[in-house]
From TrEMBL:
InterPro entries: G_GB1_RHD3_dom, Guanylate-bd_C_sf, Guanylate-bd_N, P-loop_NTPase. PROSITE patterns: G_GB1_RHD3. Residues 48-366 form the GB1/RHD3-type G domain. One of its GO terms (molecular function) is GTP binding. SUPFAM superfamilies: Interferon-induced guanylate-binding protein 1 (GBP1), C-terminal domain, P-loop containing nucleoside triphosphate hydrolases. This is GB1/RHD3-type G domain-containing protein. Keywords: GTP-binding, Hydrolase, Nucleotide-binding. The lineage of its organism: Eukaryota, Sar, Stramenopiles, Oomycota, Saprolegniomycetes. It comes from the Eukaryota. Belongs to the TRAFAC class dynamin-like GTPase superfamily. GB1/RHD3 GTPase family. It holds the Pfam family GBP. The keyword Ribosomal protein does not apply.
Amino acid sequence: MTDATAVPPVEAPAITGAKQIVRINDDGTKFELDEAAIDEILHKIDPDMKVAIISVVGAFRTGKSFVLDLFLRYLKYTSSHPAPDVTSREWALACGPQLEGNSNFEATNGETGFSWRAGRKRNTTGIWMWSDPFIRQSATGEDIAVFLIDTQGMFDSETSQMLTASIFGLSTLFSSYQIYNVDKRVQEDNLQHLALFTEYGRYVLPNKQMKEASMRSIQSFARVISDKHLQDLCELDATDVEDDDGTADTTDDTNHVDDVPVVRPFQHLDFLVRDWQDFKRSATLADKHADMKAYASEVLSTRKQQDLADTREQIHSCFASIRCVLLSHPGHAVTDLEYDGSIDEIDGRFLELLTSYLNTLFGPESLEPKTIHGVAVTSRELLVFIKSYAALFKEATIFPEAKTLLEATAEANNANMKDRALAKYKAEMQKKVGLRCSYVQPHHLTEHHRLCLLGSLTIFDMGAKM
């Protein structure tokens, strides 16, 4: 007999603040993905909503977590206010006079912000994700959920080189916008490490000739099927199953292989140069932006030396867009061991440059969802990819072979497209055999099933490009 006085179980409180989604063992040689945390974070939004992941990577003790907490303040402020003027501190002060995440006096463990502190010892370990999404609108008016990711600093004395490569690789695979935080200038070793850690991204893409042949086959198949209902099915998913340039495919058989847009494995890369010292005192903000463009050209231009040229070619082949953003020093008070997070003590020139950068980074024109093979992925699909990539890196005793990474990507991508095609088939069949539908003659049902099946297979073929 059931006890009528039994107290119902209390649900665990929802995750808030920064949550560690990848943990490192004490030896600094292995990591573990917290799948439950990832599930809970991504389930805060509609499973079909597209997602943008902004990730910051770089050497340890270079201020990544500190600047991410300023990112958080900006996103919180602009959730209810327009983009601020670059000369205004209002957005930075809106949540209080002191910045969250300060662990100079006691560990914060991510409750209020990404943990940071002054000093020489490492602070962040593993990968942390802000648990609350920020819903923003793209230039097309589409809602996109924005998440921030903080990563363990590279090249500390406690983490193996292989694990460092894995953390960097995972962060890059997860993100739609990778921010590479560097100190004072972009040096050649920064570029070499970036090229090494992103090398495997190039192999995530399928062979270009195979992809073009596949798309020609799909287009021919769609033309042969003359039934209007099937055409409607394909057109309905045209916005979801995009071509490589981010638009629905409108090409015909006369196009050559060379006309296929090149899809790079990763989307955007910013070199965020901290403590930049070469701005003229009299320089305006426009002058500083011009300096940034000139510096990017200087750093990434082709070199005569083969090894230097190869490094730059590799980076360009992996990212769709690359730029350099230069930030001046935030003020010496910020680096003090007793700094209490006071916003007023942050140098105004630093805040002006940061505000300008954030207005661009989170503006509608720049905001894009995470894509894989040029196709935007939803929250539900991203979850599958994250788990697949994490499992791959975790099981490998060395940095994974390109073939293995390709197979993992193909498996996750095809699983997502199978689910999408099956959902479309079920939805279309429900129109004939749903609870409120009248009797359907067997031959009509068979024909409807055939058309729905063909439409679903077409949707799968258009999306499963690997």
